[in-house]
Write a structure and sequence with these properties.
The chain has 15 helices and 20 strands. The chain is α+β, with helices and mostly antiparallel strands and 456 residues long. It folds into 3 domains: 13-94, Uridine Diphospho-n-acetylenolpyruvylglucosamine Reductase, domain 2; 101-212 and 431-441, Uridine Diphospho-n-acetylenolpyruvylglucosamine Reductase, domain 3; 214-417, Vanillyl-alcohol Oxidase, Chain A, domain 3 (3-Layer(aba) Sandwich). It binds flavin-adenine dinucleotide.
Length: 456
């Protein structure tokens, strides 16, 4: 056992004695760097951070926390934007060191420890020419991604990350290890597929894999003054796009300071066919840059990491649109631009295909119709408080401007605690069933500092 807890703090000595992992307290030198989430804006200070190395560590920690009447939060790869994985004065169950991935190439499945990142899974699976639906940035945790749903470039072909979850192991609020699968606790598996972190600490997950190594993907950049035309044509195009093609879109600033519109197609079928299918995108406007080419799925995801470095300050709002209607395009361009800074961007996921064909009640993730999930990403270096206010106001302003054209709910992973009503609306007709599950697995609401919280 190695612990680094401060000599003065006797409360946590008992816990440290139970662990193979490490315990970090605020007086420890490493505490600050261990505490740090991806979003440097989050300043929350937990009473202790427990870096678990085994399922037994998780079980001991939950039982100990409950016996001492303390509060907790759960952390994987640490990308929760609003800081819910670091509960103020609580104990953090940190799974970031439990990252093993084991692939079964015959069954086409992967067993993933719950601290594994998207990048960990992609790298392990690509050795066998396999992949699954993931998000777009390699450092994001697979567990957090899946519990929220998990939009990404393969959504049209393979659905959400949550749709590829076959089973999971969970330590529940009373410290019991249970398996959630089609055979055992199927109700719990249903809730883990997009129902948030409400029901326990997930310690491992099993995913379905698909044959895939190379995709056709990359950025197409168009001048801002052609944005209306391009977005209208894009809107028509995606209505009939094949499942294999998923196109992200949005606005970013180039290094020379110009704001541009981007379309970022990813085609995951045969490359030659993909070239023909995406050809019309090249005629939507005058291309400033065309980077679309065959690329491994791993390189695609790693290539996007540079956009979102850890430690910068971020604030984010989202709206989910029923396509790009003219008024929504006008609101986006008139109210959302200029972007508030070079690091800020608007990123839009295209939900369609396989993901849209899953029934509303088949998984906890309820928004099962084609839509565009608009992320309004404000990002700044932490120089001045004025900067913070300006960025937050930009994201809130454009979010409100889009709201009349958006679904009432949203994406639970990207809603903050003040948006509890939107969480309820997002789950829609699945909300009551989630409440029942909460009553079964966490009646005391131990897991309340979580994405998609449902109150018992
Ligand atoms: C840079 C960036 C890119 C992103 N890209 C995408 C994207 O492409 N598609 C998409 O859909 N989303 C995306 N997201 C949102 C992301 O999926 C969520 O923020 C997700 O919750 C992050 O998971 P994490 O493990 O990295 O974060 P953490 O902060 O470690 O965890 C987030 C929350 O997930 C829950 N949780 C995590 N692990 C466990 C566990 N083992 N057991 C129980 N609960 C757990 C907890 O409630 C925790 O508060 C992105 C976020 C960022 C910051």
């Amino acid at each position: 056992m190695t612990t680094t807890y401060g000599q003065s703090n006797t409360l946590f000595k008992d816990l440290a004695a139970l662990l193979t992992g490490q315990l970090f307290l605020p007086e420890d030198a490493a505490y600050e760097s261990v505490r740090q989430l991806w979003n440097g804006k989050v300043k929350t200070r937990p009473a202790a951070i427990v870096r678990c190395l085994s399922v037994q560590d998780v079980i001991h920690t939950i039982r100990w926390i409950r016996a001492h009447g303390l509060s907790l939060s759960v952390r994987g790869a640490g990308h929760e934007i609003f800081g819910r994985s670091l509960r103020e004065n609580g104990v953090v169950i940190d799974l970031s060191q439990m990252r093993a991935v084991t692939v079964d190439p015959v069954a086409r499945t992967a067993q993933v420890q719950s601290g594994a990142t998207i990048g960990d899974l992609i790298e392990a699976a690509q050795k066998y020419g396999l992949a699954t639906a993931t998000g777009t940035i390699s450092s994001v945790g697979m567990t957090g991604l899946t519990l929220g749903g998990g939009y990404g470039p393969l959504i049209g072909a393979y659905g959400l990350a949550a749709d590829n979850l076959l089973s999971a192991q969970v330590v529940t609020a009373n410290g019991q290890l249970v398996t959630a699968s089609a055979e055992e606790h199927p109700d719990l598996l249903w809730g883990l597929r997009g129902g948030g972190g409400n029901f326990g600490v997930v310690v491992s997950l099993e995913y379905r894999l698909h044959p895939l190594t190379t995709v056709l993907s990359g950025m197409l950049l168009y001048p801002l003054d052609q944005a209306r035309t391009v977005l209208h044509r894009f809107n028509e195009f995606i209505a009939t796009a094949p499942d294999e093609l998923t196109i992200a879109s949005g606005f970013l600033q180039t290094p020379d300071g110009a704001t541009v519109l981007f379309l970022s197609p990813t085609y995951c079928g045969a490359i030659k066919a993909g070239e023909q299918i995406i050809a019309p995108l090249r005629t939507f406007g005058t291309l400033l840059i065309d980077q679309v080419q065959p690329v491994t799925y791993n390189d695609l995801i790693r290539g996007l990491d540079a956009f979102t470095p850890k430690g910068r300050h971020y604030y984010l709002q989202t709206q989910s649109l029923d396509g790009f209607q003219t008024k929504a395009i006008e609101a986006l361009i008139e109210q959302g631009l200029p972007l508030p800074s070079p690091f800020s961007m608007i990123n839009i996921h295209n939900f369609h295909g396989t993901a849209s064909r899953v029934g509303v009640s088949e998984t906890a993730f309820a928004l099962r119709q084609d839509h565009l999930m608009v992320e309004l990403i404000a990002a700044w270096e932490p120089q001045s408080p004025d900067d913070e206010q300006r960025h937050i106001q930009w994201a809130q302003h454009i979010s409100q401007a889009l709201a009349p054209y958006a679904f009432k709910g949203g994406y639970i992973s990207l809603l903050d605690e003040q948006e509890q009503e939107r969480v309820r609306l997002t789950f829609g007709s699945n909300y009551e069933r989630l409440l029942d599950l909460k009553q079964t697995y966490d009646p005391d609401d131990v897991f309340r500092s979580t994405i998609g919280h449902v109150a018992p």
